[in-house]
Amino acid sequence: FMKLLTGESVPQQGTVVRPEKLGVLRQDQFAFDQYRVIDTVIMGNARLWQALEEREHLYAVTDMTDEQGMRLAELEGVVGEEDGYTAESDAAVLLDGLDIPEPLHARKMSGLQGGQKVRVLLAQALFGGPQALLLDEPTNHLDLDSIHWLIDFLGRYDGTLIVISHDRHFLNAVCTHTAD
């Protein structure tokens, strides 16, 4: 069911409609090994990340054309709309809440332990104000303080949350409806 919702699987019948901004807790701990921790979190907002990447490429151009200058202006608009100017500090707040200390934020994901990677992937799912969150076992590898932080975060979250978990205390704290 979760794979249908995320788009990883195609339905045999009917259609699945997803919001434009969807936060998904990815389970592949190695998918982002070549990226910095902070960048991995920011990738949770795909529109922002693509704009930042293209913008960086255009700023590296030494002899910019008018067309490239216009594109750069469009990208700056996207960065502004998606709160890109505060993206690193917003990502750092999520990482701190999930007990990933600041000195690790600039490291490559490959340098983290498995449990730390899962926390970064959780921060990625939460980043950027998604309209819906799809979280599969979000409390795995979290200590009690991080679980409480996540419960508080989700209590303030204004969107649809679909969560799979075996942690009934967590489920009781964040869910309004249960499918078993």
Which descriptors would you attach to this protein?
3-stranded parallel sheet, mainly alpha, 180 residues, 47% helix, 8 helices, 3 strands
Question: What topology does this entry show?
Answer:
Layout: H1 2-6, E1 22-24, H2 37-42, H3 46-59, H4 66-81, H5 87-97, H6 114-126, E2 132-136, H7 144-156, E3 160-164, H8 168-174
Parallel strand pairs: 1-2, 2-3
Helix pairs in contact: 3-4
Describe it.
- This protein has helices at residues 2-6, 37-42, 46-59, 66-81, 87-97, 114-126, 144-156, 168-174; strands at residues 22-24, 132-136, 160-164.
- With 180 residues, the protein is mainly alpha-helical.
- It has a three-stranded parallel β-sheet with strand order 1-2-3.
- The chain is globular.
Summarize the structure.
By secondary structure, this protein is mainly α.
- What is the β-strand count? 3
Across the major sheet, the strand order is 1-2-3
Order of helices and strands: HEHHHHHEHEH
Note the overall shape.
Answer: globular
Tell me the helix content.
40-55%
Q: What fraction of the residues are assigned to beta strands by DSSP?
A: 5-15%
Computed over alpha carbons, the radius of gyration is 18 Å
Number of helices: 8
The average pLDDT score comes to 93
Low-confidence stretches: none
N-to-C span? 12 Å
Main sheet makeup: 3 strands, parallel
- Strand pairing plus helix content: what structural class? mainly alpha
